[in-house]
């Protein structure tokens, strides 16, 4: 899926939060605020894990799951 709109929207949504938001795809870890990182990682057919840590983690988790769902990306939010 290299959907530019999805990548930009995911990155912009992540940038609203101070929490660290890291996408795990296989054994790669990508900072979701990095558009370049997303371009090389977000390819269809994967399931991803999202690790969110920080003061606004709850709001960030809610927003990110919404954005990923909107673009039909399979995401599992990991709560440590």
Automatic annotation (TrEMBL):
Q: Gene3D superfamilies from the entry?
A: HPr-like (3.30.1340.10)
Where are the annotated coiled coils located? none
The organism's place on the tree of life at top rank: Bacteria
Q: Which residues form the HPr domain?
A: 9-69
SUPFAM superfamilies per the record? Answer: HPr-like
The name under which this protein is listed is: HPr family phosphocarrier protein
Give the species this sequence originates from: Paenibacillus yanchengensis
